[in-house]
Design goal:
Largest sheet: 7 strands, mixed
Organism: Pseudonocardia parietis
Family: Belongs to the FAD-binding monooxygenase family.
CATH architecture of one domain: 3-Layer(bba) Sandwich
Pfam families: Pyr_redox_3 (PF13738)
Keywords: FAD, Flavoprotein, Monooxygenase, NADP, Oxidoreductase
Cofactor: FAD
Radius of gyration: 24 Å
């Protein structure tokens, strides 16, 4: 832990967050010879994987590529045990990285950032922390590594304070665990998190009631242990794996079939979908090139999955409730699961459709629906996701040189240049910010690319004698327009209830936030911006080159 004395401390850079992004950013800053400190609210490293400890919590990217690629020795020395790692294994991996590169000595744990304001000249930042001692830090560059999915979204239900039982949010699960043995538990939410948690909770509860507003597609994960032979094979092939990731649409090491779903014959298409279903995982999206570009093509995949749900769920009425009808497959985040639909064949699991009969209030006994029906519960679990992408940054709410806060600047929705910087906020970098590929990709791929770009930019500033950099408002506006056009070229914005649009947070502006133009295309753009002397940015300083 960094020993920060009461009073001011000067750093070249302050990084907020010690997950995948913050750890690698610190490593790169050290390589540049810059003084840096990481401020982390949690008591340990991990970011998302420190907090998300709910039953069933797993990654939905396969373990062999949900990891860093920057160090060849690290790739070879760490061995994953499962195809899809559980939260404790990912946390152990990040602990290993922190120890291997001796990162903890520059991380201040259990430190909440309570404020950040730019200097009047835009050449530095003052960062306030809420450690109880009033510690204030000063830095030239502020770098946010706060994650895209870290601001828990607890629904504002009337009467929650009257509930006689216990309630939890999956994104802030107690580290000591929660014993639900023999208890009546209600789960609100059936997105990716709910789909993971429901089968795990059902194993122990006396009765599990699932409150579903939106039915979702899900592909079986087909999880299992990785054999020694499989581990040796991917370690031997890492160079090629990373090349495929870098050239891909979404940072995953698989290639999308360039055939249209509509060009294939019906039996050929069914066979292809069946093979992808049996293999399991996110690769199902790569079966045909136009699943996210053409509504008719998408419907072939959507109906295939609905048929599988009908086959799995024995009660026709329950199966019908589970069939997604209001959006196409993968237009919202596409979950993968371990026996999710099979769980509804249990006698001790009930599915409640709260779209047709909404939750009206929490009462002492449980949840009351609009119809007046009360579901009696001992425990209530909110699997309601996060205020995604913008939420973590807006909770930090930094203020620019003129006092304008990020919340004020983003009142109508986010605006960024490349998802990396915001006009009006000089010397601020946002790792995987809004309008970057972020959640549409394998996150470590996007994180490493962003960190490497920021490190290259800082090196450029040092070499040119500049100490101030800010996104140009016109470049920012043009990037926002391009982000919208890239999204509109897909089916993604049509899923009106998607958190990609902020639809899960009441009052949040409806803006499609992740960049949908593809990971490789985005990387090329960022590379070109840097090669052209950081086009779209203004830099200056006492020794800056003309």
């Amino acid at each position: 832990m960094v020993d920060i004395e009461v009073g001011d401390r000067e750093f070249d850079a302050v990084v907020i967050g010690a997950g995948f992004a913050g750890l690698y950013m610190l490593h790169r800053l050290r390589g540049l010879g810059m003084s840096a400190v990481v401020l982390e609210q949690a008591a340990g490293v991990g970011g998302t994987w420190y907090w998300n400890r709910y039953p069933g919590a797993r990654c939905d990217s396969e373990s062999y590529y949900y990891c860093y690629s920057f160090d060849r020795e690290l790739e070879q020395e760490w061995t994953w045990t499962e195809r899809y790692p559980r939260q404790p294994e990912i946390k152990a991996y990040l602990d290993h990285v922190a120890d291997r590169f001796d990162l903890r000595r520059d991380i201040r744990f259990s430190t909440e950032v309570t404020g950040a304001r730019a200097d009047a000249d835009g050449r530095g930042w003052t960062v306030e922390t809420g450690t109880g001692t009033g510690v204030t830090l000063h830095c030239r560059f502020l770098i946010t590594a706060v994650g895209c999915l870290s601001a828990a979204n607890v629904p504002d239900l009337p009467g929650l304070e009257t509930f006689a039982g216990r309630w939890f949010h999956t994104g802030r699960w107690p580290h000591a665990g929660v014993d639900v043995t023999g208890r009546r538990v209600g789960v609100v939410g059936t997105g990716s998190t709910g789909i993971q948690a429901v089968p795990a909770l059902a194993e122990d509860t006396a009765h599990l009631t699932v409150f579903q507003r939106t039915a979702n597609y899900s592909i079986p994960a087909r999880n299992g242990p990785l054999t020694e032979a499989q581990s040796r094979a991917y370690k031997a092939d890492y160079r090629h794996i990373r090349e495929v990731q870098a050239a891909s649409t979404n940072g995953h090491p698989f290639v999308i079939n360039q055939q249209s779903a509509l060009e294939a014959g019906e039996q050929e298409r069914t066979d292809a979908y069946r093979a992808a279903w049996e293999r399991g995982g996110l690769r199902f999206r790569a079966t045909y090139r136009d699943l996210l570009a053409d509504e008719a093509a998408n419907e072939t995949a959507s109906e295939f999955i609905r048929e599988r749900i009908r086959e799995i769920v024995r009660d026709p009425a329950t199966a019908e409730k589970l069939l997604p009808r209001d959006h196409g497959f993968a237009t919202k985040r596409p979950p993968i699961d371990t026996h999710y639909f099979e769980t509804y064949n249990r006698d001790d699991v009930t599915l409640v459709d709260v779209r047709s009969d909404p939750i009206e209030a929490v009462v002492a006994e449980g949840l009351r629906l609009r119809s007046g029906v009360v579901h009696e519960l001992d425990d209530l679990v909110f699997a309601t996701g996060f205020d995604a992408l913008t939420g973590p940054l807006l909770r930090l709410d930094p203020a620019g040189p003129d006092g304008t806060t990020l919340g004020e600047a983003w009142r109508a929705g986010p605006r960024t240049y490349l998802g990396l910087a915001v006009s009006g906020f000089p010397n601020l970098f946002t790792i995987t910010g809004p309008f970057s590929p972020s959640v549409l990709t394998n996150m470590p791929s996007s994180i490493e690319q962003h960190v490497d770009w920021i490190a290259g930019c800082l090196e450029h500033l040092r070499d040119t004698g500049a100490d101030r950099i800010e996104a140009d408002p016109e470049a920012e506006r043009a990037w926002g327009e391009h982000n919208r056009e890239a999204a509109d070229a897909t089916l993604l914005p049509r899923a009106a209830t998607s958190w990609y649009l902020g639809a899960n947070v009441p009052g949040k502006p409806s803006v499609f936030m992740p960049y949908a133009g593809g990971f490789a295309r985005y990387v090329t753009t960022c590379t070109d911006v840097a090669r052209e002397g950081y086009r779209g940015f203004h830099t200056d300083g006492p020794r800056a080159a003309a």
